[in-house]
Fold Cell division protein ZapA.
Amino acid sequence: MAEQEKNRISVEIYGHTYKMVGTESTGHMRLVASIVDDKMREISLLNPSLDSGKLAVLTAVNTVNEMLKLKIEVEKLEDELRKLKD
């Protein structure tokens, strides 16, 4: 099986430059970085005393929380769709 070609880009998140490598498109990777940057800035406005490490962890916790809520919602919708098909 052939390995997918990996894209490499530099992105800026919360004032720091990071190199990202992935099989997703560079546009997708830039969007991810932009959303992370936006979320960190949003949380920083509400908690200006947080250092960047704590801010990053809080951003990750909030993001995973949102992901889990969406996963539960998707599962509910899939259950509803199965019921409608039966």
Q: What stands out?
A: The longest strand covers residues 7-13.
